[in-house]
Amino acid sequence: MSNVSEERSVTLTIDGREVTVPEGTLIIRAAEQLGIDIPRFCDHELLKPAGACRQCLVDIPDAGNGRGFPKPQASCTIPVAAGMVVETASPSAAKAQAGVMEFLLINHPLDCPVCDKGGECPLQNQAMSHGAGETRFDGVKRTYEKPIPVSDTILLDRERCVLCQRCTRFAEEIADDPRLVLIERGARQQVGTVDGEPFDSPYSGNIIDLCPVGALTSTDYRFRARPFDLVSSDSIAEHDACGAAIRVDHRRGKVMRRVPREDAEVNQQWITDRDRFEFRYLTRDRVKMPLIRENGALRVASWPEALGLAAGGLAAGPTAVLTGGRVTLEDARAYATFARETLGTEDIDFRDTATPEETAFLHQHVRGAELVTYSDLMAADVIELVGLDPRAEAGTIDLWLIQAQRAGASIFRTFGRPPADHPNVRKIGGDRPLTSRSVILVGRDAAATPGLLDEAVAAAANASAQLAWVPRRAGDRGAVEAGCFPLPGGRDVDEIVRAATIGQLRGLVLGRVDATSELIDAATRTFTVSLETNRTDLAKVADVVLPIAAPAEKAGTFVTWEGRERPFDRVFDAGAYTDVRVLAELAKRIETAKAVSA
């Protein structure tokens, strides 16, 4: 995805200042290294050069061969040359930039007071810095019906569009989903979709950020806030195990939008639509006060009353602990300590289903394993996906795989297996031999096929290839590292649910666990304490519900599929307690209850 080759260096002069950059660097990038800001709209460091908007025109009196260009050139498309001389603010360059700006504004509506891009708009800023103070245009502006839906979450205002092609290039080059295209020609050219079908890529929201003029807006954020009315906080996305860096914009304790934060080693500048749009759970059916079951129904209780009831029930007999997928590393450690030291049990698991083969795999090949990184995917010759659908489960990985494949990597997929004697059984590494540069990514579904995890381990060992486990949820790898799954002598989630159902357990502790019909049934048959943010199906059948903070409301750490720790700070204070604090208070009362009963 880079336009730069680091094989040789080139020295050139920009605005009278020398700069040395790698051969192949674009003029506009070389200028950035000197702190020179050349106006642009179509240029983006992660997209291929297009030269579509012509706003970045500069003078090149010497192209490095003693001769210059007779007219200003687009600095976003021309690579540097040794001895090149570039002038970004000469009279002819300034006139060209002002002329292009005037041309772009001919049809652009005066929507700034109502446009969502206002306050963070490159067109607005550059019109002030490089445009004229007044227009000479007295004709009729081009108009369109506005807005029109590009998808369920994105609206297009064609009057604002300057045809920079950032959105269409992203769709083709990054998302590998070229259904967003330019249609018509000449003055009627506009952004549209193939056959009018929605652009429903799982990464479609990134075109909102890429659009430099407010032509593409979010249905979720439209007309809701101005950038200067918001407080911005850095965070980490909690919906998968990729660890995407995000910025959360909020106002008065309410999240207004989430956008990507640049991290070259992880998500670059992209996030999935799930990470972008799915944050309403923070306010939907929140549990704000403890609840206890009385006469078959849940009622609001004080913290001392709820903790006392929970402690008495859990101290009465054998108890197991199940944790969910959004717990932080700190939370997971607290649950593991609570289970083993307070409750004295090895019955703890973070999974929604389990097999002995998977448990052994997690102990031997995941916990404490060496890092396999996104950069390893880019350097790989062969990438095997075993029981993993990255587009659905790990979008950031999927975007890296698209680039890795274009860089020459071969990608193969292995899912569930037919019987071993089936004539078309595919072996891992069977299509192209694995090498020490190869990477095998194992997903959660691999455990559903007996022997598939062992085959992946053997294939990696035989070829000295890298092996990594890609869970579906943000807290899963941290749960493994914290020991939130059974050690020898402990029961896994399936055994725990079965034991609770038949009366072998007296209590269950649930920490933001995804509901299954079997678990709901088990929770109704035993004393259940649920630490939860929302009124989930499991919380509704629990005996005690203790409210806890959502990820945005606390500081913590997620551990990615790589094994990379991704710490984040609290976005805002909602007054909710963390899992760690609730478990600590509960542990004190359980110890007291045990001492009294003894």
Describe the structure.
- By secondary structure, this protein is an alpha/beta fold.
- The protein has four domains: 9-103, Ubiquitin-like (UB roll), CATH 3.10.20; 107-218, Alpha-Beta Plaits (2-Layer Sandwich), CATH 3.30.70; 291-350 and 478-597, Rossmann fold (3-Layer(aba) Sandwich); 356-473, Cobalt-precorrin-4 Transmethylase, domain 1 (3-Layer(aba) Sandwich).
- It is built from 18 helices and 26 strands.
- Strands 15-14-24-23-22-16-17 form a seven-stranded mixed sheet, sandwiched between helices. The protein has a five-stranded mixed sheet with strand order 2-1-5-3-4, with helices on both faces. Strands 19-18-20-21 form a four-stranded parallel sheet, with helices on both faces.
- Helix 7 crosses helix 18 (579-597), helix 8 packs parallel to helix 18 and helix 15 crosses helix 16.
- The chain is globular and about 90 Å long.
- The chain starts with 8 loop residues before the first strand and ends with a helix.
